[in-house]
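thought: user wants a sequence for this fold. calling inverse folding tool.
action: design(structure=
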C-alpha cells in the first residue's frame, strides 16, 4: 500500500516524510499514526531502515523470522533493515499505532541496549507509565511535522532514549563498559581522521587491540565491519558537503580521503545509488539570504 506524504482523514491516518538527510548519528525517514481497518495488513516487505511501531490500542500480529508475535496495547515491535516482515491487524480489535522509521550511526547500539533485535522484535515497557511516555515522545514528532529539522532530530534522540530506558529488556551498560570504551575510542578516531587514508590496522592499533579481535568487536557492536562503517561514514560526510556547499566534487572527494575522483564516485554510488553530481542536483540546500 503506497501512502502519500500528507495527512489523510484526520481521524484515521497521519503520515509524514522527513526531508532532510544531513544528519549522520540519527536520522528520521518517515513517521505517522494510524487507526487501522480490521485485518489491515502490510507485507511481505523489507525496509531500508529501522521501523518501530508502538501500539496505542487494538491488537494484531507481526510475522517475522518464521514466527508470529501477538502484539497488543502498550507494546511495540521493531523491523530491521532488510528483514522481510508482514503485520496484520486483528479482525475485531484492529490496531491504533504510531510509528517512526529511522537510522544512523548510533541507532543499532541504542536498540541493542533496549534489548531489541531480529530475534527479539517485541518491545515490552517496564511499566504502563513508561510506555505512555514513549507514546508521547513519538506523537510529539508525528504531530509537529512543521518543526525545524534540528528540533525533530532532537526529539528523535529523546524518543530513542525513552525506548532504551523504558524497555523491560533493557541491558545494563555497565556490563559492556570495556567494549563501549573501545568503540568510543574507535569512533573518535574515525571522526577526527576520516579525511586521511587511515587503515583498519591503524584503527586497531589506536585502540590497542589485535586487528582480528578488533574487527569482531566492532562488528558485534556496530553491526558491520570497520571497513563498511568507515565507507558509510565518509560517504555520509560527502553527502552533507554536496548538499550544503558549492565545493567542486573533486575537492569533496579529496576531503573524504579519495584522491581519485572516479573511485570516489563509484564508492558514493554504491552507498546512495546515484552519482555525486545527481545527488547534489536533488539535495542541494540553497543558502538563505541575510
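)
observation: tool returned 290 residues.
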Amino acid at each position: 500500500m503506497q501512502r502519500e506524504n500528507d495527512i489523510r482523514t484526520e481521524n484515521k491516518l497521519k503520515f509524514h516524510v522527513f526531508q532532510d538527510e544531513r544528519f549522520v548519528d540519527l536520522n528520521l525517514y518517515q513517521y505517522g499514526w494510524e487507526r487501522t481497518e480490521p485485518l489491515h495488513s502490510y507485507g511481505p516487505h523489507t525496509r531500508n531502515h529501522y521501523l518501530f511501531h508502538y501500539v496505542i490500542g487494538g491488537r494484531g500480529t507481526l510475522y517475522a523470522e518464521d514466527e508470529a508475535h501477538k502484539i497488543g496495547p502498550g507494546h511495540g515491535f521493531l523491523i530491521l533493515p532488510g528483514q522481510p516482515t508482514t503485520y496484520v491487524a486483528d479482525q475485531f480489535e484492529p490496531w491504533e499505532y504510531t510509528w517512526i522509521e529511522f537510522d544512523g550511526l548510533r541507532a543499532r547500539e541504542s536498540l541493542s541496549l533496549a534489548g531489541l533485535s531480529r530475534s527479539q522484535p517485541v518491545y515490552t515497557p517496564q511499566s504502563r507509565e513508561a510506555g505512555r511516555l514513549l507514546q508521547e515522545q513519538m506523537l510529539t514528532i508525528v504531530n509537529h511535522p512543521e518543526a525545524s529539522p534540528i528540533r525533530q532530530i532532537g526529539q528523535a534522540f529523546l524518543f530513542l532514549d525513552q525506548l532504551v530506558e523504558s524497555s523491560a529488556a533493557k541491558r545494563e551498560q555497565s556490563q559492556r563498559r570495556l567494549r563501549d570504551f573501545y568503540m568510543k575510542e574507535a569512533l573518535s578516531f574515525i571522526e577526527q581522521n576520516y579525511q586521511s587514508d587511515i587503515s583498519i590496522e591503524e584503527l586497531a592499533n589506536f585502540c590497542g587491540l589485535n586487528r582480528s579481535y578488533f574487527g569482531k568487536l566492532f562488528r558485534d557492536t556496530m553491526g558491520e565491519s570497520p571497513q563498511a562503517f568507515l565507507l558509510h561514514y565518509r560517504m555520509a560526510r560527502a553527502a552533507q558537503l554536496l548538499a550544503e556547499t558549492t565545493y567542486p566534487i573533486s575537492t569533496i572527494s579529496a576531503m573524504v580521503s579519495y584522491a581519485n575522483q572516479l573511485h570516489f564516485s563509484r564508492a558514493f554510488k554504491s552507498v546512495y545509488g546515484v552519482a555525486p553530481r545527481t545527488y547534489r542536483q536533488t539535495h542541494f540546500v540553497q543558502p538563505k539570504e541575510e
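thought: summarizing for user.
answer: Here is the designed sequence. The CA atoms of residues 91 and 191 lie 50 Å apart.
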